[in-house]
Amino acid sequence: MQEKGSISIHTENIFPIIKKFLYSDNEIFLRELVSNAVDAVQKIKRLSSLGQYNGAIGEPLVEVSFDEAAKTITISDNGIGMTAEEIKKYINQIAFSGAEEFVEKFKDAKDANELIGKFGLGFYSAFMVSDKVEIQTLSYQEGAQPARWICDGSTEFEITEGDRTTRGTSIILHVNADSQEFLDKYKLQGILDKYCKFLPVPIKFGTKKEYDYDSVAEDAEDKKPKEKEVDNIINDTTPIWTKTPSELKDEDYLRFYRELYPMSEEPLFWIHLNVDHPFTLTGVLYFPKVRNDMEFQRNKIKLFSRQVFITDEVKEIVPDFLMLLHGVIDSPDIPLNVSRSFLQADGNVKKINSHISKKVADKLAELFRTDRKAYESKWADIGLFVKYGMISEDKFYDRAKDFALLSNTKEEYYTLAEYKDKIEPLQKDKDGKLVYLYTNDPARQDAFIQSADRKGYDVLLMNSPIDNHFIHTLERKLDQTTMKRVDADVVDKLIAKDEKIESVLTESETTSVREIFEKAISKPNMTVKVEALGSEELPVTVTMDEFMRRMKDMAAMGGGM
Ligand code: ADP
Ligand code: MG
Predict the structure, then answer these.
(1) Atom of ligand 1 nearest to the CA of 36
(2) pLDDT tens, N- to C-terminus, the chain (561 residues)
(3) Nearest atom (ligand 1) to Cα of 37
(4) Pairing with 159, which of 21, 89, 230, 276 sits 20 to 30 Å away (CA)?
(5) Ligand 2: distance of its center to the CA of 125 in Å?
(6) Residue 77 CB–ligand 1 contact under 6 Å
(7) How deeply is 95 buried, as exposed, middle or buried, from its count of CB atoms within 10 A (0-12, 13-18, 19+)?
(8) What is the spatial distance between Cα 202 and Cα 179, in angstroms, rounded to a whole number?
(9) Atom of ligand 1 nearest to the CA of 336
(10) CA 6, CA 2: separation in Å to the nearest integer?
(11) C-beta neighbour count of 473 within 10 angstroms
């Protein structure tokens, strides 16, 4: 058996173009070839379980190896293999709709994914790092002959009889001069860890040393076990998102979290996604402790397609406000070689996005309902997501308005409805609008807060990085409501509580205290207002922002006020 032929695309030497334009992403060749190998193994398992293949399937295995001297990288599997006919069908007929279109489009392609996705070039990504690619394969089909295909990156290929004696396929890459960096254990291990860590078939990459505890005899003096060489399997074939939530304990979720983010604190809680319809989506999303450090935390969600890592740029799939979450999502509806433009255009992606948003809202509502105390104690962290969501999405605002909390300076928590009820009797301005008082700097505004408190008003704590925007959202969303930063004028303008505050100073004393302060400050355009509140620890407040702290310090030092 020997055949020479031409790959059916209508232009010469398309591979130099691929190589040249895709250089920056060239490591994905390994992802593509390993996932083809995994597919091939899963196909034989499926055929066997359907009774269409009666031979032994053996231990499913994909093996990646390299030979520095021969300058080759080999990806082999014990999957279904290919006949020479199938090679011609699946490998030679590249899914180009036309060479012109390709040449037209590659000009604008920004990354390899876009090209590969558009043109079905998974296998051909091998040419990004190879001068020559060889396939050795033996099909599972009865009486199949081993076949060998070799191609040097031109459109010419050669098919001859192959060497393989066992079912499966080996892809041998003859690594080109520019890509010698890949002939390195750590380089390859790093790429495998990135893309293949959770693939569903064991992937072997060399061997490693392990203690052999069986080697220690009961009565041995030296209890130290011998070392033995074992296969270095680089992946976990059943990561938690592939399991059903009922099989899993909290500890499993936490262990997985630590594996993904070894340097992070424990997450607050998590959501296990499991959707079959109208799209397939699995995943686990964790709520981290954000600690007000929002930028640092972004881009921690990993996107997978059938357990193959694709990217951690999930901007289109996850609503922007949930980009702070950690974890994984996996959808076979998203192609391996996904590009930004695909994500933006794809209808499923939009559905996934709104599904995740809804799931997150459901989970928060449930936490709020089942254990409000615990929910309140985590509000400092949760609140950031919720507020961010309410600011950025009307739909989420509507879902969240029942479990969003407002906290005041006394560390009490209220839902929006509860808070309205609380302040309605007292905090209105002369037009009858509800006035929500807040502080964004409780230390500096302490005197105003106390003054408001004495009058029976409540002051909200709004000092997270996002609260500025959240305040605007509340004003926009709540009827007949204004948000006012607490200060003296604001407090004064509210309709005061019935009982009058007893001043500890007479009117003339008040005037002279004011004059003393005005003199001491002695700056034009600044007025000092003295309020005698009649309480022991703070008999007088001087309501001038810039000097508050100093005045208080003086009072504390017994400055004779
Ligand atoms: P895709 O994986 O999207 O189908 P590829 O270009 O990666 O596209 O692969 C083309 C086809 O070549 C596969 O669909 C499969 O039929 C065949 N193929 C590639 N690698 C293998 C392999 N290791 N074993 C069996 N068939 C393979
Ligand atoms: Mg493929």
Answers:
(1) 20
(2) 677 776 655 455 556 666 555 545 789 899 999 999 999 999 999 999 999 999 999 999 999 999 999 999 999 999 999 999 999 888 877 644 344 555 565 555 555 555 555 555 688 889 889 999 999 999 999 999 999 999 987 778 899 999 999 999 999 999 999 999 999 999 999 999 999 999 999 999 999 998 888 777 777 777 788 889 999 999 999 999 999 999 999 999 999 999 998 888 899 899 999 988 888 899 999 998 876 565 556 678 999 989 999 888 888 888 888 888 999 999 988 776 666 666 777 777 888 888 999 999 999 999 999 999 999 999 988 898 899 999 999 999 999 999 999 999 999 999 999 999 998 888 888 778 888 999 999 998 888 898 888 888 899 999 888 899 999 999 999 988 899 898 877 776 665 554 455 566 777 877 887 788 777 777 655 666 666 555 555 556 665 544 444 555 555 554 433
(3) 23
(4) 21
(5) 10
(6) yes
(7) exposed
(8) 26
(9) 3
(10) 14
(11) 17
The pair of structure tokens assigned to 120 is 């079905």
Per 3-state DSSP, what percentage of the chain is helix, strand, and coil (rounded to 5)?
A: 40, 20, 40
Distance 130 CA to ligand 1 centre (A): 18
Ligand 2 centroid to Cα of residue 122, in Å, is 5
SS3 state at 172: strand
Q: Which of 276, 280, 275, 282 is nearest to 302 (CA)?
A: 282
Helix (H), strand (E) at residue 470: helix 467-477
- Residue 420 alpha carbon to ligand 1 centre in Å: 62
Contact 433, 480 (CB under 8 A): yes
Ligand 1 pocket member 83 (CB < 6 A): no
| DSSP letter string, 105-135 | HHTT--SHHHHHHHHT-TGGGGGGTEEEEEE
Indicate which residue's Cα is closest to atom 12 of ligand 1. Answer: 90
The pTM of the full predicted model, rounded to 2 decimals, is 0.77
According to DSSP, the residues that pair with 439 across neighbouring strands are: 461
Which ligand ends up closest to the CA of 38?
1
Whole-number Å distance between alpha carbons of 372 and 367 = 7
Residue whose pair of structure tokens reads 């972004």 in the numeric block: 298
